[in-house]
Design a protein that fits this description.
- The protein is of the alpha/beta class and about 250 residues long.
- It has a single domain, classed as Aldolase class I (TIM Barrel, Alpha-Beta Barrel), CATH 3.20.20.70.
- The protein contains eleven helices and twelve strands.
- Strands 1-4-5-6-7-10-11-12 form an eight-stranded parallel barrel, surrounded by eight helices.
- Strand 2 and strand 3 (about 35) form a beta hairpin.
- The longest helix is centred in the middle third of the chain and has 11 residues, at about 120-130.
- The chain starts with 10 loop residues before the first strand and ends with a helix.
């Protein structure tokens, strides 16, 4: 299995959002704006791998909202596919981080606890390695969002980014929460802002609805742009994974 740290160019990250053991999507992260897709998220994971996906982005929405976690589903996905999986959603303790990393997940995404407790973030990076920890920068306009995107963070985007990089972060997941699940287009300006403001690698998420949206991000051709997350567009069929993957193939 190729691991995330071996990636040297941008990749497509098919998203699998899990809630109550089912594969769903939310619009702008609102817990009451749920769209249901595959009954079994493992089936979705296998489908994306068969279509050529080189990695997967799996989020436990239930855990993020403080509901029942779908840890077993995430670990089954990691055990079933042969491509690396990154996962996040409600991971707020050393035990939860270790459970996923020791259970076959390639790297974990830390958000709320990492923002509120930089010492925890630094400890996880020192313990597991910076290549296995991704820091979430969830942004609505010029504001950072935490706690399942339902609360505002205490710091600006730039201050949050700096705080996390000071803790040793080398990978960010940058999500435009006001675009997520809308198919309305990626905030390329936000991605550029984070790339310009620090030294960490960046995965862009939120708003992909067409192949042109994917191309708009990849056209940045930044050496630290690690890839693009595509969720609802794949399930609704407005983007075909095979077409998106071709955009990442060097000419």
């Amino acid at each position: 299995m190729i691991d995330f740290f071996e990636f040297t160019s941008s990749r497509i990250f098919p998203a699998i959002d899990v809630r109550g053991g089912r594969c769903v999507r939310l619009v702008r992260g609102a817990r009451d704006a749920e769209l249901s897709y595959d009954a079994d998220p493992v089936t979705a994971a296998q489908r994306w791998e068969a279509a050529g996906a080189e990695c997967l982005h799996v989020i436990d929405l239930g855990a993020a909202f403080g509901e029942e976690a779908s840890t077993d589903v995430v670990l089954r996905i990691a055990a079933t596919v042969s491509i690396p999986v990154q996962t996040g959603g409600g991971i707020r303790s050393p035990e939860r981080v270790a459970e996923f990393l020791e259970g076959g997940v390639g790297r974990v995404i830390l958000g709320t606890r990492a923002l509120r407790d930089p010492a925890f973030l630094e400890e996880m990076i020192q313990l597991h390695g910076a290549h296995r920890i991704v820091a979430a920068l969830d942004c609505e306009g010029d504001e950072v969002r935490v706690a399942g995107w339902e609360e505002a963070g205490a710091l600006s985007i730039e201050a949050t980014q700096q705080q996390m990089e000071n803790a040793g972060v080398s990978h960010f997941l940058v999500t435009a929460t006001d675009r997520d699940g809308t198919l309305g287009g990626v905030r390329v300006d936000l991605v550029e802002r984070i790339l310009a403001g620090g030294v960490a690698r960046v995965v862009a998420a939120g708003g992909v609805g067409t192949l042109e949206h994917v191309e708009a991000v990849l056209s940045l051709r930044h050496p630290r742009l690690e890839g693009v997350v595509i969720g609802r567009a794949l399930y609704d069929g407005t983007v075909q994974l095979e077409d998106a993957l071709r955009l990442t193939t060097p000419e």
